[in-house]
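Example record

The entry below shows one chain as it appears in the dataset: sequence first, then structure tokens.
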Amino acid sequence: MLCRYVHNILYFAVWLKCSHFVQASKDHSAELSSQIELLKSQLKGEGDHCTTSGNSLFGEVDDRRMNVERKMISLKVKYESLERNHATATQQLRKLKVSRVK
């Protein structure tokens, strides 16, 4: 009985470590995707900026819009990452409660 309990604990520890690495790689991938989108918007913005530089008011508004879009993309990625972390933590707590009851 004790051997099976130790086996279950070791199995769960390995599973937690693997799921942590998977989650970390997903978060890193999401962050890289965000950076790619940011760079794409910057490149697109640089091309558009040449045509709007004639009127400084519209150029300022466009610059602020681009900054807000960048912040929104970054915040969206962070929110999705936090959502995934919360789901993983909730799932791990549920499994710990189940293993503790057994």
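Notes for this example: DSSP finds two helices and no strands in the chain. The chain has one domain: 2-101.
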